[in-house]
Amino acid sequence: MSWIQNRHSLILLTVLFMLVSVAPVMASIAGGQCLQIPPGARANGLGQAYVALADDATAAWWNPAGLGFHTGRTLGMMHSQLVPDLADDIYYEYAAFVHQKDGWGTYAISLIYLSYGESAITSTSSTVEGYFNSYEFSPAISYGVKLDENTSLGMGLKYVRVDLAPDTATHDINRDGAGSSVAIDIGLMRRLGMFNIGAVLSNFGPNISFIDEEQSDPMPRHFKAGISAIPVVNEYGHLLATFDASKMLVDGGPFIANCGFEVQYTDVIALRMGYIYDQDGDIESFTFGGGVCVPLSNKDLFIDYASVPQASELDRVHRFSLELHF
């Protein structure tokens, strides 16, 4: 690598750490919950340690720099019921399309939808006057490009809308329980032999304001860094190990550590296990998952599953992903 390329990598890392140091410190509870649920059954099976991998349709969420190493086109989606034992209308959806264009880099369009289910509108006398649905959604566009054969840079721009209640539910025709904001992501990835290292600053944007500016929530701003390695690879498959550490950049924001392992056999079947350490979120447990690849002519269909822990009072959740590479 040339001195100029090394200098570019150093500058980008410096920018990331500068952004972390000047990130606004707001309230300790972040808004935009749809931006905090990790997509991708493979990533979830690996303990949600994916910043240094980010090699599929979820790359735009984990680390847009991963798009720089992406080839071809990928269409992916994930579904997850969040509290399956309590309500079937509280769920999370993720969908993305990734397209690599020779000489231009790789583009991604993604959409997140989080449903909070249906709620009743009641009068002051507790009479049910109607029903409404609460939800969040966030469309995003992302771009990644290789700076050289082993270094990539990525950026993303997203809009987030939180619609908790209409004005008929808040009993104020001038104010509803909705808010929106925009945010950017910036990431860097570097390949070093069998290792990948990555870093990303995500959801850096203005607060989400609801009733008024004094009643706003900060975006879930995160700084994440990770490392992954493939210490064993041969004609039978590979062994992969990955580790992430992240910090939410709001007052009292939690520190989270994640790790995971994957054993893949002949590019057809994979088994995964990971661990999530989130003391503030009351999650300290293992993740499990697996996947299969189904060849379809000149296309590959990946079907993945993960079992993921939640806070101790909640049941584990199941996450299912489909990805078509073509």
Q: What would the keywords be for this entry?
A:
single chain, 326 residues, 14-stranded antiparallel barrel, two-stranded antiparallel sheet, 4 helices
| Unreliably modeled segments | 1-28
Reported CATH architecture: Beta Barrel
Order of helices and strands: HHHEEEEEHEEEEEEEEEEE
CATH topology: Porin
Radius of gyration: 20 Å
Query: What characteristic shape results from the CA principal axes?
Result: globular
The number of strands is 16
The number of distinct helices, counting runs of at least 4 residues, comes to 4
Could you tell me the strand content as a percent range? over 45%
Give the strand line-up of the largest sheet: 1-2-3-4-5-6-7-10-11-12-13-14-15-16
Query: In CATH, what is the class?
Result: Mainly Beta
Q: State the end-to-end CA separation.
A: 31 Å
Main β-sheet description:
14 strands, antiparallel, barrel
Structural class: mainly beta
Q: Which bin fits the share of residues in helices?
A: 10-25%
The residue-averaged pLDDT reads 87
Domain count: the total is: 1
Name of the CATH homologous superfamily: Outer membrane protein transport protein (OMPP1/FadL/TodX)
Topology summary:
Blueprint (H helix, E strand, L loop, with lengths): L2 H20 L18 H5 L13 H4 L10 E9 L9 E11 L3 E18 L5 E21 L2 E15 L1 H4 L6 E16 L2 E10 L3 E2 L6 E2 L4 E13 L2 E12 L6 E11 L3 E10 L4 E14 L2 E10 L8 E9 L1
Antiparallel strand pairs: 1-2, 1-16, 2-3, 3-4, 4-5, 5-6, 6-7, 7-10, 8-9, 10-11, 11-12, 12-13, 13-14, 14-15, 15-16
